[in-house]
């Protein structure tokens, strides 16, 4: 087993930094897939090092080469002028990036601070969505090359997690084949998306750093971009309102629209949003098996996430049903 300090020094040297200046190394918690460590040099400069699990480690199909997608996100965020880590160096088995200021968004913020931050987050997210890619899908290539259209890319993504659910025997609130049938009924709405935009897809509060160094609470960085893909900007609204409804987040939507983001919720948009909710909640339910989560986490997923998957599927079925079959 490679010593963490030895590995960190080797990576610093490969990045053109003096390995003799490494003064501090400590694991960072909160992640569920990669090993994450904070490196601090003698001059106080902080870096974050990510190490992926061994290739033989069980995981979901889309999780191969996640660091490639993460590097793509940081490059794109810099292009958009959005605070995020800066890529320093990467290889097949590591990613070294700068550390962002601030701490994870938690429950210590006042209502006024949260409102201001949600508005700022809306603006930052709209800027991310201006960045476009060369095709649709995961840039990692985990599910194949980028697709020329969003329907092809997303249905490939959705089918992959359904295959994972079958393979691992995931405990879903509905049979896998029933989930697949419901999702297929909404796939026509995907054709409205014609531009592959940058989507983080994991912008829950745990991946948003809040910086108070200047006095007022501001967003210090959007981190953990490993789940990013090129696709429909609407997909980001799922994790931004995890287990909730972004349509109720007035501050976020105001900031998003003020910065030029388009946030309409007509029938095709609601169908797509329901599809993306179903996709994320399928991932959250299925990954508990290869992650070998404990009983408490499994209970939370079944109690909190499974009903949200059912709600998303119900919304698709309700919107897809012919008018004469709908109930008042």
TrEMBL record:
The keyword Transferase applies. The keyword 4Fe-4S does not apply. Gene3D superfamilies: 3.90.1200.10. Keywords: Kinase, Transferase. Residues 25-272 form the Aminoglycoside phosphotransferase domain. One of its GO terms (molecular function) is kinase activity. Coiled coil: none annotated. Transmembrane segments: none annotated. Pfam families: APH. This is Putative Hygromycin-B 7''-O-kinase. The lineage of its organism: Bacteria, Bacillati, Actinomycetota, Actinomycetes, Kitasatosporales.
